[in-house]
Amino acid sequence: MAPSLATNRLQFEEPSATAAAMTDLPFAIIGFDLDGTLLETHRDLGAAVNHALDLGGFAPVPADHASDLIGGGAKIMLQRAVDEQGGLPEDEFRRLYKAMLAYYADNNAVHTQPYPHARETLDALRERDIAMVVVTNKFESFARQILTTLDLADHFAAIIGGDTMGKGKAKPAPDPIFEAQRRGGGGSLAFVGDSSYDVAAARAARVPVIGARYGYCDKPRGELGADAEIESLAELVPALARLG
Ligand SMILES: O=C(O)COP(=O)(O)O
Ligand SMILES: [Mg+2]
Question: Which range of residues forms the domain containing residue 47?
């Protein structure tokens, strides 16, 4: 259908068609968790855990169970997997942990991919001049590497990892959220995450939080304690608008 004159005029005044239909959002910054929120990472994380488990003579974790171990960072993930099979003395655990990190450094974007609607959601937020910051419990270097490989890194004003703020200052502590607020240029921030680590960090920082149901959520529906829950990233912008 040929555009009417009226449509043309509207488009002339409002450079982007999406901008014309845009909802205003009451946030200057959106903080994003990574694993289970923006990226589906469990297959590569699972392979790294299984590499370490194999080295220690343990049975592999089934692919669909790997996602249950994600949320607290790599060390907690391996610790949980090892403890499920009887545990290990500290020095032997360290050997496996190092091997897992070395494996993941070389294999962190083999199967990892953005969730459906991730790219368009980040684009839609960027169009609104909203600053986006990643707050993950992954090591910052891994997060940066993966986002660069997937061509998503340039959407973010900052990438804050589990090691960025120092010991004891990863989610569920509020410190990385405050840092996201600072590096995002200040102003009101809403957080989006899939696990109770995310909700606890956001609550501690006193910012609104949206729960990603499609991720590696460790709580039943409605029990995450988030202000809203979404089934897909396509629901994020409307959910943020309703939080205002
Ligand atoms: O890797 C993890 O265990 C957690 O990472 P996330 O904070 O991005 O969910
Ligand atoms: Mg997560």
Answer: 42-106
Q: pTM for the complete prediction? A: 0.90
Q: Is 199 a member of any domain?
A: yes
Query: Can you tell me the mean pLDDT for 93-104?
Result: 98
List the shell of residues around ion ligand 2, using CB closer than 5 Å: 33, 35-36, 194-195
d(CA 213, CA 228): 10
Does 136 contact ligand 1 (Cβ within 6 A)? yes
Total of domains in the chain: 2
Cβ of 31 below 6 Å from ligand 1 = no
Both 153 and 206 in a single domain? yes
Give the ipTM.
Answer: 0.97
pLDDT digits (tens, 9 = 90+) for 56-70: 999 999 988 899 999
Q: Where are the alpha helices (DSSP H) in the chain?
A: 5-13, 17-20, 42-55, 63-66, 74-83, 90-106, 118-127, 140-149, 175-183, 196-205, 236-243
Active site residues: 33
The larger pLDDT score, comparing residue 48 to residue 18, is at 48
**Six-digit token pair at 14?**
């409002």
Give the residue with greater pLDDT, 218 vs 225: 225
